[in-house]
Specification:
With 223 residues, the chain is α/β, with parallel strands linked by helices. The chain is built from 9 helices and 8 strands.
Length: 223
């Protein structure tokens, strides 16, 4: 019998708990990424007790957030964000995980008395075209976030490069996070780990996991 959504969620949560015991740390925030999935699946996740939902594309996220507004979910924007969509994203997202340039910081800045949490996306690959700020530039970008009204610096985010040993990549991310904390001691969070490597991320101190298909199952072809 094909596992249900509840089965997959329970299996992932069990694996997370095992990794947390191995690491000896605190349980991370588990964000279920619903890219290409319908709002009905988000509603089902909410009924199963999920409260943190991740989306990669604004066009999808804004529609789903409106459709399940009554569920009072915390929306995390985890994909690459165009500056011209930043203010629209902050209307529904409590957290943006992919801040990697000064222009995006400026676009997200709104002095309206509300805060959006941001992670600095760190480039963990030397491949050209890969997203993320270079570790040498992190202090400059962090200072811009810290000076911006309406933004709260949470920590660092990273994606393990394809073909690389994920734990080594996440160890590097942890080191960059320690560098950031010298500038902002409150920025203790690490957003790392997806369906195939969340165990390694937990072992390197991840506080936020971005898990999609391991929980949601097959992604429908994007329309």
């Amino acid at each position: 019998m094909e596992p249900t959504l509840a089965d997959r969620l329970a299996a992932v949560d069990s694996a997370i708990a095992d990794a947390v015991r191995e690491a000896g740390g605190a349980p991370p925030t588990r964000i279920v990424v619903t890219k290409f999935q319908p709002a009905s699946l988000v509603r089902e996740l909410a009924d199963l007790g999920v409260r943190d939902i991740g989306e990669n594309r604004h066009q999808e996220a804004v529609v789903k957030a409106a459709e399940v507004d009554d569920a009072r979910l915390a929306w995390h924007f985890v994909g690459q964000l165009q500056s011209n969509k930043a203010k629209a994203v902050r209307r529904y997202a409590s957290t943006v995980h992919s801040v990697d340039r000064a222009s995006l910081v400026d676009a997200l800045t709104v002095d309206d008395g509300t805060d959006v949490g941001v992670f600095l996306e760190i480039g963990l690959s030397d491949e050209p075209g890969r997203a993320g700020v270079a570790p040498d530039d992190i202090d400059r970008l962090a200072e811009r976030v810290l000076a911006a009204p309406g933004l709260r610096l949470l920590g660092v985010m990273g994606v393990a490069p394809l073909g690389a040993e994920p734990r080594q990549a996440f160890a590097r991310l942890r080191e960059v996070g320690a560098q950031l904390r010298r500038l902002e001691p409150a920025a203790t969070a690490i957003s790392a780990g997806m369906s195939g490597d969340f165990r390694e991320a937990i072992l390197e101190g991840a506080t936020h996991l971005r898990i999609g298909t391991a929980i949601t199952g097959f992604r429908p072809f994007p329309g």
